[in-house]
Amino acid sequence: MSKLFSNLSIRNLTLKNRIIMSPMCQYSAHDGFATDWHLVHYTSRAVGGVAAVIQEATAVCPEGRISYGDLGIWKDDHISKLKEIVKVIEENGSIPGIQLAHAGRKASCELGWKRGEQIKEGENSWQTVAPSPIPFYETDNTPAELTEVEIEKIIYDFALAAQRSITAGYKIIEIHAAHGYLIHQFLSPLTNQRKDQYGGTFENRIRLLIRIVDAVGLLLDESHSLWVRISATDWVDNGWNPEESTQLASLLKDKGVDVIDVSSGGNLPHVKIPVGKNYQVPFAKEIKSRTGILTGAVGLITEANQAEEILQKEEADLIFIGRELLRDPYFALHAAKSLGDDLKWPLQYERAK
Ligand code: FNR
Q1: Closest residue by CA, ligand 1 atom 3
Q2: How far, in Å, CA of 275 to CA of 280, rounded?
Q3: pLDDT digit of tens for each residue in the chain (353 aa)?
Q4: Protein residue with least CA distance to atom 22, ligand 1
Q5: Can you give the CATH number for the domain in which 158 is found?
Q6: How many separate domains does the chain show?
Q7: How far, in whole angstroms, is CA 184 from its chain's centroid?
């Protein structure tokens, strides 16, 4: 049997294989509410055999959305449609997960397929916030520097969002601390120039994430698992770097985080990133080997053999698949066939196996 199709137990959860649907914004929500698009989109990947579905970045407060089309979980009314999604993912043999997010200075943008530029005024725009008043693009509006009281509110928003996620039935809670969104803006000295307890030293820059993890962790029992997505590097000198990521992962492990989902970049514009096959895998490997925490590899992993090799070489424990699952919802079923493994097809599709 391949490693890609071996089980992995985390707390009381059993992942039936190592393929995880990577969170991907659909820009199809209204006032944060999920729609039938989300129901069909996530159900299809569960039917397609992934071990877990991590739902796209779901905002913990309205101004934490990247765009007006983002999913949200800032009010109880959001829960009922999310419950439907969770139920159907589980009925189709996959574990439902949710990525909780705040976009910080990268909020108030157009939908992804409308180029995603910032909407600076009028309908569908709002005042962005950040650790320091530095816009992402020079031409963007300047974000408001968060006060310590406002930071407290954001930590509270993450905790309430996690509580609602549990009520909806999600089993994996992933905190989005990557891609230049709010938490990453705090981690990196290039975007965090605060002089208070949230800026300056490594301990201060990671404080927001640590406090969120502490607050969310208190709500979870053994039937849930807490994951954190990070960008392992800003890909520039003097930015957030792999060494700091490893130190952070070690602290998160001690705090009960089960998986580090290892991505990179996104915090600064105009950065040269050597994008290519497996380009982020070395970061997952480094964090795994130096801390012993479970890691997920992501980025341009598109083939069964490629995923299997990463696992065989112990470079990561889980494989997050993004765009390949948009092209092929049945990626996992096809991957099992190509590796000679037996992954249960839906009975309705048996004759196509
Ligand atoms: C993404 N990605 C992403 N990442 C994340 O952490 N939260 C999100 O909501 C999104 N949204 C999103 C939307 C779309 C349309 C794409 C294509 C990507 C990044 C994604 O999860 C993944 O890390 C990258 O796409 C790289 O993996 P692949 O696509 O090469 O497998």
Answers
A1: 24
A2: 8
A3: 999 999 999 999 999 999 999 999 999 999 999 999 999 999 999 999 999 999 999 999 999 999 999 999 999 999 999 999 999 999 999 999 999 999 999 999 999 999 999 999 999 999 999 999 999 999 999 999 999 999 999 999 999 999 999 999 999 999 999 999 999 999 999 999 999 999 999 999 999 999 999 999 999 999 999 999 999 999 999 999 999 999 999 999 999 999 999 999 999 999 999 999 999 999 999 999 999 999 999 999 999 999 999 999 999 999 999 999 999 999 999 999 999 998 989 999 989 88
A4: 322
A5: 3.20.20.70
A6: 1
A7: 12
Of 103, 100, 109, the C-alpha closest to 58 is 100
Going by alpha carbons, the residue nearest to atom 27 of ligand 1 is 299
Question: Any catalytic annotation for residue 181?
Answer: yes
How many degrees, rounded to 5, is the angle at CA 301 between CA 276 and CA 53? 135
**Ligand 1 pocket check for 263: Cβ under 6 Å:** yes
Instruction: Tell how far the Cα of 102 is from the centroid of ligand 1, in angstroms.
Output: 15
Decide whether any atom of ligand 1 lies within 6 Å of the 298 Cβ.
yes
Q: How many Cβ atoms from other residues are within 10 Å of residue 144's Cβ?
A: 14
Say which residues have a Cβ less than 8 Å from residue 93's Cβ, sequence separation at least 6: 16, 46, 49, 344
Q: Whole domain around residue 336: which residue ranges?
A: 3-352
From the candidates 42, 68, 170, 181, which is the catalytic residue?
A: 181
Torsion of CA 319, 325, 331, 333, to 10 degrees: 90
The best mutation among 22, 42, 175, 176 to test binding of ligand 1, ranked by most ligand atoms within 8 Å of the C-beta, falls on 22
How many CA atoms, within 13 angstroms, populate the side-chain half-sphere of residue 102? 27
Q: Whose CA is nearest to atom 10 of ligand 1?
A: 24
Rg of the chain's alpha carbons, rounded to an integer? 19
Ligand 1 pocket, 32 CB below 6 A?
Answer: no
Q: Which is nearest to 222 in space by CA: 256, 189, 251, 193?
A: 256
| Of residues 262, 151, 243, the one with CA closest to residue 204 | 151
CA of 282 to the centre of ligand 1 (A): 18
Give yes or no for a contact between 172 and 220, defined as CB atoms under 8 angstroms apart. Answer: no
